[in-house]
Amino acid sequence: MKQNIYFVTGIDTDAGKSYATGYLARQWNEQGLCTITQKLVQTGNSGYSEDINLHRKLMGISYTEEDMARLTMPEIFAYPASPHLASRLENRPIDFDKIENATRILGDRYDAVLLEGAGGLMAPLTEDFLTIDYIKEKNYPVILVTSGRLGSINHTLLSLEAIARRNLNLYMVAYNQYPETPDQTISDDAKRFIIKYLSRHFPDTRLAEIPMIR
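Predicted structure:
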């Protein structure tokens, strides 16, 4: 598989991964890098992926051929829960071979694939296999989505500790300004703190700001 697959994860469930994924895909396409998005496992839907829908809306495009073939949404479960629970409730294991095959096809057709996870790094995919285990197994560069909400510094640093401990490649930290935070003082300080921390501990990591699209 080509090394053009980037795994998008977040500091928690509500970090705005889908918004950041769609925005980055649009930005990369505008810069001439032909980019598609994929959802690792979609829960809370039936027959479609609301996250892929949001990606396409932000990218300003309609469904692609790959969307229609479900390559971008290979595993969908109805219950809105962590993948391990949603899978168990349907009595249907996650088909990791199907996911990897879909990712490989997308990687062959596009310059870059933004593969969005479900939840944060430690979200369980099975009872004994976490999202971070999947990233490590596939050796995907990580795009970590953070924000300026209260608590984001703690969640960001915990995620960075996990990334360092597993020796993952932290390609980018995306500071998400969506949704807007009610306290701009907290948001500004979180951004300042995270940038300073990255400069000390992850100096080669890119920083992207994800703005509100109005």
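Summary: The first helix runs from residue 17 to 30.
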